[in-house]
Amino acid sequence: QIQLEESGGGLVQAGGSLSLSCGAPGRTFSNYAMGWFRQAPGKEREFVAAISWNGDGTSYAASVKGRFTISRDNAKNTVYLQMNHLKPEDTAVYYCNAAITVQALELMARSRVVPWGQGTQVIVSS
Predict the structure, then answer these.
(1) Which one, of 60, 2, 68, lies nearest residue 31 by Cα?
(2) 3-state secondary structure of 82
């Protein structure tokens, strides 16, 4: 299993933007679809966005569609999440993970089978 490291979280005011990164130093995940997930205080982890292995296909949760953009750079072994027009309800710990397909990522947020890293904290103040 690939060890992923999330970064880029921080504190931002509502309406602002943040860009998150997820990488696997020394490893490649070019064969995998990649996804972003989040877990807000008092809530279970949920799916946010996913991108196919070659970047040709993407998927977004309804709550972030139109505001967030997922992208990847396989040469850098990095996946990004550009978050614009942030809302207080976007406050959460954000995680990334990998799967064979985008569809699998859409369904794996609450999986007890796949491992999850430590994530990166995003706090949006009102």
Answers:
(1) 2
(2) strand
Q: Which residues contact 83 (CB under 8 A, 6 or more apart)?
A: 17, 18, 19, 20, 64, 67, 68, 90, 122
Tens digit of pLDDT for each residue in 94-126? 999 999 999 999 999 988 778 888 999 999 999
Which residues, listed in sequence order, are joined to residue 84 by a DSSP beta bridge?
none
What is the spatial order of strands in the sheet that 18-23 belongs to?
5-7, 18-23, 78-83, 68-73
The count of other CB atoms within 10 Å of the CB of residue 107 is: 11
The two tokens of residue 114 are 């796949």
State both tokens at 90: 């976007």
